[in-house]
Automatic annotation (TrEMBL):
This protein's name: PAC domain-containing protein
Lineage summary: Bacteria, Candidatus Yonathiibacteriota
UniProt cross-references to Gene3D superfamilies, sorted A to Z: PAS domain
UniProt key word Kinase: no
Transmembrane segments: 27-46, 200-221
Amino acid sequence: MENTAKSHKAVHHLQKIQQKKPVAKKTIITIGSIIVMLGIGVTFYFTNRIEKFFWEARTSSVAEVVHELVIHYLKKGDVDNWQNAESNARLAEFAKEAMHFIPSAATIKIYSNDGILAWTDLKHVQSGYQKPESDGQLAQVRTNKKMIMPAGETTKDELGKESLLEVWSIMDDHDGNMIGYFEIYFDTSDIQTFINEIKYSIWVIILTMLGIVLVLIKLAFREQDIRIIEQAEYLNGIIEQSPIGIYTVNTNGFIESYNPAMMRIHDIADTNEAIGKNVFDAVAYQKNGLDKLLLSGLGGVSFETEVEVESSLGAHKKTYRHYYGVPLKNPAGDVEHLLVMVEDITDRKELERKVTDHAEDLETNINERTKVLQEKIGELERFQRLTVDREIRMTELKQEIEKLRVKLESFGVKSDTI
């Protein structure tokens, strides 16, 4: 029983080791993927925050510069009277100074309150073009006092710059009255380079952390692998030395391993005589129904049974074996192998038969002794009845004699004469 318990425990540990095999690789891949995803998220978040902060600050400074330039260079009505030569000249001077004082400015557009383009130096659009109110841009600028958006491809092609950003804001006079809109195109290549440097720095830090984490995980799993190998060797020793026959079957029914006890049970000298054979081809298994149990085991259902097998010692010699099948599953729950333990229980069955026979003989003897005892009890009861009847008659006789004695004495006859 102790050896059986050890073998069952070994099977349990073998199942756990079977399931641990792919865990380390999957864990490393999962952790690495999580770190990479976090790195992408962190990079995207921080670069967007930095870029937004930069443009918010630049927009505020641009609005202040434009306000000062409006007060210094423009007169009341210049934007609305853009077709006037003097007004147009002041708008051009204003734009020139704005380009000079605002860093990275590539070009500028000036719109009236009605959305009419009052001044621009771009070739693909002419002054007098009215921006439709329906596109919502002017309303957004009026509400938020500013708007930032990517430049159009036509403007990029004309200026020959790939990294352009539009910054919209309103133009106020010295009294704070709105006199129009300005749209400045910024060359963002220097800012983009700065943002990319930040991205690269973050990625270097993340990749360094990823490398350190993966190395530490690898070292940790290497220790785990060593322990798993030690456990596997220990369990393999238990299986090899177990007095219980143990063999494994793959999902196609072919025998993959055979321990020494199994070789003794089947009376074979070399494991090659059994390894590679298909259990479903065994006639003995088909006769006693083991083929169906093995099939259910490969389907994921454990089984335990006792069967009578043909003995090599002759037809009159019965051999009994106890079979215990355990499916070995991977972490996904799919059966990869079936482990079968076989124990020759012929001696136990013979002992059980002898115990049964002895119990039957004992019961027969008890019944016979009970019968004899019952007969003796009957005789005693009959003897008792005879003895009791005799006592009763003697008592009655004494009573009659006493009556006669009293009667005689009444006639004057003394009792001592009787």
